[in-house]
Design brief:
The protein is of the alpha+beta class. 39% of the residues lie in helices and 15% in strands.
């Protein structure tokens, strides 16, 4: 996720336990016996000169202290959890990729992240509730938890509940929203949209059935790039040499195919250095 500098400084401490837990969930066995405070201190010492480093470079610089641990677990724990870091721009451009270079947030922004909030207060949690609903509401509390991965959110939701409006979905679940948020009529047409991999329009909910059919939900975590037709995932797309290829996940009627082809042509033109507008829409699945 991209956040503003002020948000990064104010919110990073609130996320640290969650970030540690996520890395340990993947590398618990590899990191068994590693004192994470010592690892963090070693990583900060390497980064103290302010020089940008890749995750691999940082891991190799501290690996001598933990020779039995591979560079990937060390690097991910340092960059993703223990040390607040920034990926320096440009990470890449529209038509090219570039390696990730990291520096501490404090070096990049000139100020260390804010300390954790005093016990019994959770300004970050309350801000996250409002910010999430501004982007994804109406949504259930379970959707918020799935999106951000944080614990302790019921108290944050309770703290701002008086500001919110509530609805019920078809299953009777409570959906919360900001009172002045736009809520279009259900019959409002939604234009075709080509989404990148891991887009929050798909991943922003615990109940992804509102956007993607259960039969295709597994594609949402594989890096597939989706095409929304009338607001629902209806196809995937790839691009090669400036040509966009669309693979439908359901049968598209002629008007839908024409709209997908038109939007795909605009995307192909944008992505192609030569201004190509080549797009192919495949056949519907049997």
């Amino acid at each position: 996720h991209l956040v503003t500098a002020d948000d990064a400084l104010a919110w990073r401490s609130r996320h640290e336990a969650m970030l540690r837990g996520r890395v340990l969930g993947t590398y618990r066995r590899e990191l068994e016996g590693v004192d994470l405070d010592e690892l963090a201190a070693a990583g900060r010492a390497v980064l103290a000169d302010g020089e940008p480093r890749s995750m691999g470079d940082l891991a190799r610089a501290v690996a001598g202290q933990w020779p039995d641990v591979g560079p990937r677990p060390l690097g991910e724990m340092l960059v993703a959890a223990l040390i607040p870091t920034v990926q320096l721009p440009p990470r890449g451009t529209w038509r090219a990729r570039a390696g990730v270079r990291n520096v501490p947030v404090a070096h990049w922004l000139g100020r260390a992240v804010d300390p954790p909030a005093p016990p019994g207060t959770d300004p970050v949690g309350a801000a996250l509730v409002r910010r999430y609903l501004a982007a994804f509401g109406p949504a259930a509390s379970a959707d918020l938890r799935a999106w951000c991965g944080l614990a302790g959110l019921p108290a944050a939701v309770a703290a701002v509940r008086g500001e919110l409006v509530a609805f019920r979905d078809e299953r009777g679940r409570e959906l919360l929203d900001l009172p002045d948020a736009p809520r279009p009529d259900p019959d409002t047409p939604a234009p075709v949209r080509f989404l990148p991999a891991f887009d929050n329009a798909i991943l922003g909910y615990q109940d992804r059935g509102r956007v993607i059919d259960d039969a295709h939900r597994g594609l949402s975590v594989t890096g597939a790039r989706f095409v929304l037709v009338d607001g629902r995932v209806s196809a995937t797309w790839t691009v090669e040499d400036g040509a966009v290829t669309v693979t439908p996940l359901r049968r598209l009627d002629p008007a839908e195919r024409a709209e997908v082809a038109e939007e795909g042509s605009a995307l192909a033109s944008f992505l192609s250095e030569g201004g190509s507008d080549r797009v192919g829409v495949g056949a519907a699945p049997p």
